[in-house]
Design goal:
Elements lengths: L21 H19 L27 H15 L5
Helix pairs in contact: 1-2
Length: about 90
């Protein structure tokens, strides 16, 4: 199975991070989302080609002091849930 996911824009407001930590969040998000999609697949609604203009993902709880890598993984899990993928 081949999965191609393109996220044109990801808006992350209010993260307890410094600007220089953004690449770490992005890398962790990409790794975790790739892992989840490879391991667990995607929801039934996404079995065929398609595109959506916007996807609203479930909220995540952030606490001050969370490392950027953990924040990226949590965001990936939220996106994965929004895609309707199996848990």
């Amino acid at each position: 199975m081949k999965i191609r996911l393109h996220i044109e824009r990801l808006v992350l407001d209010g993260l307890p991070l410094e600007r220089r930590q953004a690449p770490q969040v992005q890398a962790a998000l990409e790794r975790e989302l790739s892992r989840l999609l490879s391991a667990e697949g995607r929801g039934r609604d996404w079995r065929t080609d398609g595109a959506v203009a916007r996807l609203k993902a479930p909220a995540i709880r952030l606490t001050k002091g969370n490392p950027p890598q953990a924040i990226g993984r949590d965001i990936a899990k939220s996106i994965h849930a929004a895609l309707g993928a199996r848990r």
